[in-house]
Amino acid sequence: MLIFEISAKGRKNHLQAPRLAPEAKDIPAHLLRRTPPIFPEVSELQVVRHYTQLSRKNFSIDTQFYPLGSCTMKYNPRGVHQLASLEGFLQHHPLTPISHSQGYLQSAYELQEILSHITGLSAVSLTPMAGAQGEFAGVAMIRAYHLSRGDTARTEFLVPDAAHGTNPATAVMCGFRIKEIPTDKHGDVDLNALRAAVGPHTAGIMLTNPSTLGVFERHISEIAKTIHDVGGLLYYDGANLNAILGKCRPGDMGFDVMHINLHKTFATPHGGGGPGSGPVAANERLKPFLPIPTVGYDGDHYYWLTEKDCPQSIGRLSAFMGNAGIILRANIYARLLGHEGLCRVSEYATLNANYLMARLQQAGFTLAFADRRASHEFIITFKKEAKTMGISAKDIAKRLLDYGVHAPTTYFPLLVPECFLIEPTETESKEELDNFINILMTILKEAKESPELVKQAPHTLPVRRLDDLKAARELDLTWHKSKKPEEA
Amino acid sequence: MPFIPHTEDDVKTMLHAIGVNSIEDLFDEIPQDLRINNLNPIAPGLTEMAMGRDMKARAERDAGLACFVGAGAYEHHIPAAVWQITGRGEFLTAYTPYQAEASQGTLQLLYEYQSMMANLMGLEVSNASLYDGASALAEAVLMAVRANTHAKEPRILIAGNLHPHYRQTIEALVRPQGIILETLPYNDTTGCLETSRPKIDNGDIAAVVIAQPNFFGGIEEVDGITDWAHQHLALVIAVVNPIAMALLKEPGAWGERGADIVCGEGQPLGIPLASGGPYFGFLCTKMEYVRQMPGRLIGRTVDQNGNPGFSLTLQAREQHIRRAKATSNICTNQGLAVTAATIYMSLLGASGLADVAKASHDHSSTLCKALTALPGMRLRFNSPCFHEFVIECPCTAKALIHTVLKDNILAGLDLSLMSPELDRCLLICVTETKTAQDINAYVQAIKRALQHLTSSLTVED
């Protein structure tokens, strides 16, 4: 039932609106709206009940194990959320003079410093509003750097075939052509292919390390040298930073610029698809090009740095300073953990991933990179099961839902067939991991004994498998009054 | 250990199962010369209690001002139910609904959001959100360039009275793709776009960007500009305040054919000011351009039993499928803010939203009249306004703002931000949240400040 279908003409929530507002007589009639929008007319209780019931149709970290690879679905601490939601923060207008913004500015400045220590890079801008915007900032900074030197020949960006889809999409938004670099059979970048691809047209490379294959790129220093030798720069996709906190730093690996996903590594809630936050960190060479505004400190007061202070900046990426509330949450999370707690994150995330990987291998599942250590995530492939039993990774993913576990990332990275990318995170207990292993073993048994049970899954959720083809062919993107209730 | 559940026994058993002696062994693939062993420059951890004290003190430092600033972020009353429900763990801690069967709550809510937003704008489709109003406009510009097949060049005409931060954001986000940005001037008396328009040929311009209301709060004569743009085969991109659209003509009804793409800042719909974010950008369009849209789209379909359900659709536009050929690189958007906005719109309904719009307009007119009755204060532009207006002061806006800060009033925005010659101009916003008493307190504070500032000016002279 849609909210529109419990609507009744004339029902109102009087408490929610100011009463007795006069008509706007000074606005010419031809500029006024003639017909009101069709919104539901419902009571407050109906709204509360409707959306509470909808929320119960969701899987979430609070209710289920959610091992979605490359997304770092760790526990989002309640204390963090509560403190970031204090009235003083919520009611603070972004254009308030700095004399009345010191609480927020201090928190942003501290986070800049913390991220600088963690990444080994000298300066940070917090404004990008998600990972993909952080990528845009970083690649645009590399572009601006080359252009500032009159170096206009650099038109190509290198992207490994295992990269997130946002990487090539970002480089194109920044006006570059993409050259894809293959992966070798151990999961590392193919160095020979890389050497053959670089040249005077190379603007830079975008890399994730550990890569999306769940392994550490062992030749990273050599890759950095290869790129720098031809005058290119290195961009680090911080999606997997959770794996290396306090163990190594992108700045030391030779990266010039990177983004950090606060909604992954820094435990801010994912919100059903955002808000995220993707601060960008840069070394001395790229620092002048960071997006504005950033926060400065003179030992006494915190203040904004804008285009006047940073004339080479790539500019502004949002109306104000990005997802400020997420920045606040990341500050609180990082300071609750402190330096020891932050190091523990990568340790236990890696322990959980390697434990799951070892146990699943022992149980007969096929690892994509059996000779490698897992980072904070790893890949299993159902290529064998697809061939022998006709059971796909999608079938197993859907059956997992029946057992109350969110499916891992499926069919990504694209170069491993029928794969699961599994990231348990550090906040899951051994019991939860053991339970997951048992469920996967049960499903494999079901696949052998009663394959239809798996192929037709899910059976216990609010809906069965959806007709995606129909969704795309007969686009139904908005509700219209004329549609009959039974169609809803 | 904070948020880590492992006991010592767990760790031993797990290491044994892996076949290593210590957690440290698990990092043996990282080359030794790259290893670090601590993050000691970062302070030790705090307890939740200590952190509570610290953050409460910071929040209090930033609190307590009566806010009369808008300029892209607007204070409105947010019903308690909005964030009580939005804050439920099932909405807060879920992710992008890739597994549709396990995400029907978020997916149906987003479908309802798309329906309400498209309807509010008078257009056929809405996406499921972009980052914020400014970046949504940049995406709209890129979309218009893709969609307008008549344009000879990717040239965009942008209203000169657009929020300057929006203009800067477009510059940063679309310039790398070789898009040419030009300005459509505004009239110095009305603050609205000039009625005499530049001479252009068909196909010279891919799109025209119009703000309604404009940055000065003024209401534009949108019909004429829309028709002019369409006559020259340009698309029309409307940047609008969603609350204002409950009162003002919706973009789908502008001119003969309506605006083609509508975008803007969704924050007024139930999202707190919160230092500038997270907010959300919205983007609506006509069905003929749906395949050029950036961002997530939710479609209604059926499951294998024929029951209705919802899923992400037209994903072939998106980066995770299309990679380098995607319509945008956007992945994570602002789902939670949209959740709040959907609940906000449901609670208010169309008439409640119109009441908020009318009350804001009325309160703003009241303050405007009272201020222009003060000596030396005059209305800078003479067009009708929605809920923001510009006052030219006898002193600099900066001085006035700082003087009334002592009364815990945030008087408005110093328009020297827009251009140096507007340094005596104050952009003021009043919404339904301000009572007659609040408005009176504001007027009295300004009166005192003016006496103080103009007398000290005389002494200095």
What descriptive keywords fit this protein?
heterodimer, A: about 500 residues, alpha/beta, Aspartate Aminotransferase, domain 2, Aspartate Aminotransferase, domain 1, seven-stranded mixed sheet, four-stranded antiparallel sheet, 16 helices, disordered C terminus, B: about 450 residues, 3 domains, 12 helices, 15 strands
What is the strand arrangement across the widest sheet of chain A?
1-7-6-5-4-2-3
CATH fold type of the largest domain in chain B: Aspartate Aminotransferase, domain 2
Largest sheet of chain B: 7 strands, mixed
As a whole number of angstroms, the C-alpha radius of gyration of chain B is 26 Å
Q: Work out the helicity level of chain A.
A: 25-40%
**Domain unit count of chain B:** 3
Mean pLDDT of chain B, nearest integer?
A: 96
Order of helices and strands of chain B: HHEHHHEHEHEEHEEEEEHHEEHEEEH
Query: Which overall shape of chain A is indicated by the principal axes computed on the Cα atoms?
Result: globular
Number of domains of chain A: 2
Name given to the CATH homologous superfamily of the largest domain in chain A: Type I PLP-dependent aspartate aminotransferase-like (Major domain)
Q: Helices and strands in order, then pairings?
A:
The complex is a heterodimer of chains A (about 500) and B (about 450).
Chain A: H1 44-55, H2 78-84, H3 87-90, H4 102-119, E1 123-125, H5 131-148, E2 156-160, H6 166-173, E3 177-181, H7 191-197, E4 202-207, H8 220-229, E5 233-238, H9 250-253, E6 257-260, H10 262-265, E7 280-282, E8 294-297, E9 302-305, H11 324-362, E10 366-367, E11 378-381, H12 383-389, H13 393-402, E12 409-410, E13 419-422, H14 430-449, H15 451-455, H16 468-473
Parallel strand pairs in A: 2-3, 2-4, 4-5, 5-6
Antiparallel strand pairs in A: 1-7, 6-7, 8-9, 10-11, 11-13, 12-13
Helix pairs in contact in A: 2-11, 4-11, 5-6, 11-14
Chain B: H1 8-18, H2 48-61, E1 66-67, H3 80-86, H4 89-92, H5 104-121, E2 125-126, H6 133-147, E3 155-159, H7 164-174, E4 180-184, E5 207-212, H8 222-231, E6 235-240, E7 261-265, E8 281-285, E9 298-302, E10 308-312, H9 319-322, H10 335-372, E11 378-379, E12 388-392, H11 397-404, E13 409-410, E14 413-414, E15 425-429, H12 436-460
Parallel strand pairs in B: 1-13, 3-4, 3-5, 5-6, 6-7
Antiparallel strand pairs in B: 2-8, 7-8, 9-10, 11-12, 12-15, 14-15
Helix pairs in contact in B: 3-10, 5-10, 6-7, 10-12, 11-12
